[in-house]
Amino acid sequence: MANRRNDGATTAVDEIEEIDGFDTAGASDAFGDAVPVRKAKAFWPSAKRLVGLLAPEKLGMSIVLLFVGAGVVLAVIAPKILGKAMDVIFSGAIGSQMQPGVPVEKVIEDLRASGRNDTAEMFSRMDLIPGAGIDFELLSRYILIVLAMYFVSSVFMWIQGWLLNRLVMRVIYRLRRDVEDKLNKLPLNYFDTRQRGDLLSRVTNDVDNIQNALQQAISQLLQALLTVVGIVVMMFIVSWQMALIALIALPLSAVAAGVIGSRAQGLFTAQWKNTGALNGQVEESFSGHELMKVFGREEDMLTRFRAKNEELYKASFGAQFLSGTIFPVMNFVSYLAYVGIAVLGGLRVASGAMSLGDATAFIQYSREFTAPLGQMAGMANMLQSGVASAERTFELLDAQEQDEDDVGTSLPACTDGHVEFQDVTFSYSDDKALITDLSFEAHPGHTVAIVGPTGAGKTTLVNLVMRFYELDSGRILLDGVDVTTISRADLRSKVGMVLQDAWLFGGTIAENIRYGRLDATEEDVLDAAKATFVDRFVRALPAGYETVIDEEGTNISAGEKQLVTIARAFIANPSLLILDEATSSVDTRTELLVQQAMAALRSDRTSFVIAHRLSTIRDADTILVMEEGRIVEQGSHEVLLAARGAYYRLYTSQFSGPAEDIDAEPATGGTPTPGQGAGG
Question: Where does the record place the ABC transmembrane type-1 domain (predicted)?
Answer without folding.
Answer: 63-385
